[in-house]
Amino acid sequence: MERIPPCSGRAIELDAGDELVVIDPMGQQVSDLTAFARDDLDEYLSSGRSIDYAAKLWLSTGDVLYSNRSRPMFTIAEDTCGRHDFTLTPCSKEMFEKLYDERPGRPGCEGNLATALAPWGIGRDRVPVAFNIFMHVAMDPATGAVAVLPPLSRAGDHVRLRAEMPLVVAMTACSAGQSNNFSYKPIDFRVERAVARA
Amino acid sequence: MERIPPCSGRAIELDAGDELVVIDPMGQQVSDLTAFARDDLDEYLSSGRSIDYAAKLWLSTGDVLYSNRSRPMFTIAEDTCGRHDFTLTPCSKEMFEKLYDERPGRPGCEGNLATALAPWGIGRDRVPVAFNIFMHVAMDPATGAVAVLPPLSRAGDHVRLRAEMPLVVAMTACSAGQSNNFSYKPIDFRVERAVARA
């Protein structure tokens, strides 16, 4: 088990068949996750493709996360929480300035993802809408209004993602107070390698 | 007034202050629109930023469409329809194969946007979640299920977008039957130049 300290990020490489377990160790924390195909880093995790193919906003067990090229990147093999967001970009310096009136804004998940992805040459401009694990975004179906609510995750809740291709994956312990009920906790993860199971 | 023929795309350049009017001339047609900053084409129209700052999924008059760098790209100056989508990626060859069982799939809005953007060196991988003008996507707030319904636009409905920076803008007359009630109509547009009004 590895720990992502509060308000930071990590990136790792996965092979096809590896399983990444993302855990909320204390409850009510969010992890923004994005991914790129190791064979061609122009292929990235796409919210719009994944929502279109699943025909739902909120993905859970059995659903597939697709790339911009419509290829499966992950399958959600297990999900003990059941509610995540796939519509919002990671919190960023500019977001903290605009929505939280912080001067200057902190790097946020966007900056932390970019720092983690720097060894692969992936900068801030290429951090897309993330799969925001445990993030609880409610929608009003009449007006389309969205509200960021405290996560539904309790201590120990986790999501198991099976890699469907060789990937670079980056994830965070979220820096935005509204997303994590102003608790700024860590996120834990572990990788179960396909080769070790074989 | 210019016409985008059914199942095709166009790209144009705008200066700050120019207004782009996108018109549904016959009703129930969708136009997928995306944009890039002319000064640095790595800056692009971001669904996730725009939804986050507006705190709603469905943007309309007075709302701002933001770039991935959190800068305003457009303001919606006028909107006679009131319902558009900003969650789904443009229809694509792979989408037609997966969801419509077409073999081979047509290029779709993604391919048509990429063809239109080719003179600026922007390829298919860089076509993000688009602002899908007149696209009617309904959400079930309990399950998150999304349904693509016939557009609410009637003949002559239009959206007026004021450019807030120099832009390359690409837009389509949508190729996906479910999005346009299987009518595959054209889209009209006109540009009102700031310099002509001055």
Characterization of the model:
Chains A, B: InterPro entries: DUF1989. The structure is a homodimer. Chain A is an alpha+beta fold and about 200 residues long. Chain A has one domain (about 1-190). Chain A contains 4 helices and 13 strands. In chain A, a hairpin with a 2-residue loop joins strand 4 and strand 5. The longest helix of chain A is centred in the middle third of the chain and has 10 residues, at about 110-115. The two termini of chain A are about 20 Å apart. The model of chain A has no long low-confidence stretch (mean pLDDT about 95). Chains A and B meet through helix 1 and helix 2 of A and helix 1 and helix 2 of B.
Which features would summarize this protein structure in a list?
4 helices, 6-stranded antiparallel β-sheet, homodimer, 13 strands, 198 residues, alpha+beta, 5-stranded antiparallel β-sheet
Q: What percentage of residues of chain A falls in helices of 4 or more residues? A: 10-25%
Backbone structural class of chain A: alpha+beta
Major sheet characteristics of chain A = 6 strands, antiparallel
Query: What's the N-to-C terminus distance of chain A?
Result: 20 Å
Provide mean pLDDT of chain A, rounded: 96
Strand content of chain A: 35-45%
Order of helices and strands of chain A: EEEEEHEEHHEEEEEEH
With helices defined by DSSP (H or I, 4 residues minimum), what is the helix count of chain A?
A: 4
Q: Can you count the beta strands of chain A?
A: 13
Rounded radius of gyration of chain A (Å): 16 Å
Number of domains of chain A: 1
Biggest interface: A-B, 37 and 37 residues
Strand order of the largest sheet of chain A: 1-13-3-11-7-6
Oligomer: homodimer
